[in-house]
Design brief:
about 120 residues; mainly alpha; 3 strands; single chain; Arc Repressor Mutant, subunit A; globular
Length: about 120
């Protein structure tokens, strides 16, 4: 499910957060699906529960998950129009990166192929 690389310079909580975010974005984890409890995830990955809690808290702040007291943590559903500001910001970043890639000699076709491989 999630791989922790001890040689990765990123903190472990970021690796957990990014791993779960990737599973959500790719559709492996579906909206309203329960994700493992902090305790279970910590045991499975053999890391401190506080590290998992920090990753879950960041995912909640970013809108990827929500918590139900006494029930657990669940994947947040996408609500139309709710993320318009974030979408606009990310699209601007994508265009800026594409322009920089073109400046560095990458063709538009190569950029399109990379995006199509998602």
């Amino acid at each position: 499910m999630i791989n922790i690389d001890l040689k990765d310079p990123r903190p472990i909580f970021e690796q957990v957060r990014d791993g779960l975010k990737n599973l959500i974005i790719c559709g492996v984890l579906k909206p309203d699906e329960k994700i493992p409890s902090v305790r279970d995830m910590a045991q499975n990955l053999a890391i401190n529960p506080n590290t998992i809690q920090k990753a879950y808290r960041e995912l909640e702040t970013e809108g990827y998950v929500y918590q139900v007291t006494g029930k657990g943590t669940f994947v947040a559903p996408i609500v139309a129009g709710e993320h318009d500001d974030k979408i606009e910001k990310l699209m601007t970043e994508v265009l800026d990166l594409a322009r920089e890639l073109i400046y560095l000699g990458v063709s538009k076709e190569e950029i399109k192929e990379s995006l199509d491989s998602l």
